[in-house]
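Annex B. Sample input.
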Amino acid sequence: GKAIASHLLEAGVEDIEFANGSFTIAGTDRSVSIMEIAQQINDGLKLPKDAPQSLDVDHLTDPGPATFPNGCHICEVEVDPDTGHVKILSFVVAQDAGRAIHKGYVEGQMQGGVAQGIGWALNEEYIYDDKGRLANPGFLDYRIPVASDLPYIETVIVEVPNPNHPFGVKGVGEVNICPAMAAVANAVADAVGRRMESLPISPPKLLAALKERQESEL
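Annex B, continued. Sample output.
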């Protein structure tokens, strides 16, 4: 920055001082701001070959020990053996939110993440035809959970303040997506006696697995 400013201000690099976002010739009121330099570079400013051709800054920050949010999900399901449909009967999510400054918002984030995880677990998938074209580009075919697909999602907010944050908070919104998938898959496995090895656990896929198990038992 100083090398470019010295070129624009026609002064030696050693005479350039930087403060409050501007480069100034020491002892004078002649200055140029970072914004002005950036604009001139963007406009095609010609610089000496030995001068930097852009404004680049490297900075390394060590935030110290990290803290990780965590939680526990409990899911109860009912499986229709004739259709392969999985109904979520109840769902409880307990999660460490650090310090829950606005408990209503924290609860909503936990419930929203669980709903997304349930969608990934049971319905959401991209389907392509033999030409590689997406066959279910709309929400009529790409099934996401709606209110009638879900029970009331009970939340338990655990508060263990984050020592590395001034307010003690921890991330909430995305922590609860992956555990929901695992909880649903475990519940389905417990219900039907067969572990599904890929998601989503859609009705056709679950029916095929149940049929395969029945045939193997004959």
